[in-house]
Amino acid sequence: MVDGGVRDQAVDAAGVAGPGSGLHQSLDVVLVADVGAEPGHRAARPGDVGDDRLEFLAVAATADDVDAPGGEPPGDRRPDATGGACDHSGIHTGGSTGGDKDVSQPVADFPYTGVKAPAVPTVAMPNGESAVVVGAGFGGLSAACYLADAGLEVTVLEKNDQLGGRASVLEAEGFRFDMGPSWYLMPDVFERFFGHFDREPADFYDLQRLDPHYRIFFKDGDSVAVTDDREAMYELFESYEAGAGDALESYLETSATHYEVAMENFVYTDRPRLRDWLDLDVLRAAPVGLQLLGTMDDYVADYFDHPKLRQIAQYSLVFLGGAPHNTPALYNIMSHVDFELGVHYPDGGMRSVVEGCVELGRELGVDYVTGAEVTEIVNRKSGFLVESAAGDVGADYVVSDADYAHTEQELLPDHERQYDADYWDERTYAPSAFLLYLGVKGDVDPLAHHTLVLPSDWDRHFERLFDDPGWPADPAYYLCVPSETDDDVAPEGHSTLFALVPLAPGLDDTDEARARYRDQLLEDVAANTGVDLRERIVFEETFSVSEFADRYNSREGTALGLAHTLRQTALLRPPHRSSASPGLYFTGAYTTPGIGVPMCLVSGEHAADALLSDLQA
Ligand SMILES: Cc1cc2nc3c(=O)[nH]c(=O)nc-3n(C[C@H](O)[C@H](O)[C@H](O)COP(=O)(O)OP(=O)(O)OC[C@H]3O[C@@H](n4cnc5c(N)ncnc54)[C@H](O)[C@@H]3O)c2cc1C
């Protein structure tokens, strides 16, 4: 099933093809993934992807209406349609402006506050279309911009005291840490996002291209730097394996083609329903799709034998929240992203990008309210009432960027949930993480801005993430030293560094476990990179499974959301448009296209598009 074998026969899943189904029999195949059962999906209707296995996707066929979950636009919710303007624009007095679940920080607080909560939250204008965005991660910030640009009155309600979601900032004792994303990848996506509003990233922040992109320390004493110099990369690959230089060229050429096809057809084009896959563009892309049916592991093995070269080609899966054996080969596009598009640093760190998105939104009229944890989303005939710690807000539409599982399970009444508890229990969640933020005296050469430390055999680490959850004894991990590039993130004569070890979600991260792991990690860093930090640490803080759960309402403390497994890709991710609560939409890493800052910017666009097309219908 999961191998998603190509089949040259009609799709035969019950309720999808065959007599009486929406798909005619002239299906010429084909697809890309295993559209598995969606047990627990509660909005099933005839034509939905059903409980049987369906191994398809790019299908050449004539088709009637075959919808995947969430496919139908809700009824018209415009004020006109309900006989008048939204009638719930008043603020019901809420609690204080401070959320009550913020993570407590014994050593430092999170002092960077993007926007102060106003004493009285702004509420949508009574005569205009209005939307509340729940959560100010990149998906929410993006959706807010698109919606405000289209003329809606938009209010963003964020639980924490900072905007940016997982891209929060920790500032303490002169050190500044991006607490979440630190790799600025796919600059083309940011250009496209700001370009939509006739702006460009440079209007908001400056970018530096990093060279080396990153350094890898293998735990057998070997180390390599991945750089912009293609000839050097050719030689590097060749030095591990005769012929691997040419294989790299060919791998990257194919990866570039896959990137173009995937971005155009599967990332920028939202395809929430089965019928959306039945078009010519998908057909044209099918030859590419067919090459990507398997796993990254198998795909990369076709090019490289040497385990280290395979690791270089696959390390980015850690960012996608997957493992080589469970991530579709499609994600070889990340090598194009890495080698060709390059690794960049926005001056000031990822917070500059957050600030850019917020500033753009503000120019477009978006209101932001922090300390406004939403506790309930009530869908009434006349519109929504969104209850929050900073007051209740009425709106015609709601877009939730908070974790999907949290929104469905905790903010909606039972009858407005698309999925039952089993559905969420059965998902594969992307890893959580153990993060160690360190302020260190002196420099940390030879660590680069981005450094990876990889054991020779990393299968055991992935097993500890997905199959046999536990603290990995011999971890693969990432070290980030922004002070290598940016003088402003550390006091003079010091370095800002954080270590990130991916961990299984839901792991018990007691103080004892953290303390033990912290010591083990620092020893590992010293042994494998030659940089002994232990006597030089002047500031430190940890952040792990419990903080992800508390600070972001993240299920099982996942750092990233739903893993990009074969069964959780494309239309198998939860939809942007709720099929159970008309007028409610979702954005962010749980939805398509998926995990990562660029993907979440695109997901905001898709969620806004869904809302606007319903509004115009
Ligand atoms: C440690 C780490 C490293 C990463 N590294 C990278 C990287 O280098 N490059 C990259 O591109 N991506 C990286 N990512 C992934 C990337 O950060 C995320 O995929 C992306 O930022 C998620 O955006 P989102 O739109 O899903 O919203 P989120 O960032 O998840 O934000 C959701 C927001 O909703 C808020 N919220 C939750 N519940 C409520 C509620 N009830 N009421 C109001 N608000 C609520 C939360 O507080 C949060 O602010 C990393 C992530 C982590 C955690």
What does this 3D model show about the protein?
Among the domains are: 115-126 and 140-181 and 349-426 and 559-616, FAD/NAD(P)-binding domain (3-Layer(bba) Sandwich); 229-271 and 301-341, no CATH class; 428-552, Alpha-Beta Complex (Polyamine Oxidase, Chain A, domain 2). The chain is built from 16 helices and 21 strands. The protein has helices spanning 138-149, 187-196, 230-240, 244-267, 280-291, 296-301, 307-314, 317-320, 333-341, 350-364, 404-411, 421-426, 459-466, 511-529, 545-552, 597-616, and strands at 31-35, 54-57, 130-134, 153-157, 169-172, 175-178, 207-209, 214-218, 223-226, 344-346, 367-369, 374-380, 383-388, 391-395, 397-400, 432-441, 450-454, 477-480, 494-503, 537-543, 584-586. The chain has a seven-stranded mixed beta sheet, sandwiched between helices. A five-stranded parallel beta sheet has the order 11-4-3-15-21, with helices on one face. A three-stranded antiparallel beta sheet has the order 12-13-14, with no helix packed on it. The model is unreliable at 1-39 and 43-126 (pLDDT under 50).
Spatial gap, N to C terminus:
38 Å
Query: Strand percentage, roughly?
Result: 15-25%
Query: What is bound: which ligands?
Result: flavin-adenine dinucleotide
Derived from helix and strand composition plus strand pairing, the structural class reads alpha/beta
- Tell me the number of helical segments per DSSP (H or I, 4 or more residues long): 16
Let me know the number of strands.
Answer: 21
> Which strand order do you get reading across the main beta sheet?
9-8-17-18-19-16-20
- Per CATH, the superfamily of the domain at 115-126 and 140-181 and 349-426 and 559-616 is FAD/NAD(P)-binding domain
Could you say what the CATH architecture of the domain at 115-126 and 140-181 and 349-426 and 559-616 is? 3-Layer(bba) Sandwich
Enter the CATH topology name of the domain at 115-126 and 140-181 and 349-426 and 559-616.
FAD/NAD(P)-binding domain
- Shape field: globular
Q: Mean pLDDT, as a whole number? A: 81
Q: What's the CATH first level of the domain at 115-126 and 140-181 and 349-426 and 559-616?
A: Alpha Beta
Unreliable sequence segments: 1-39, 43-126
How much helix, percentage-wise, in residues? 25-40%
Major sheet: 7 strands, mixed
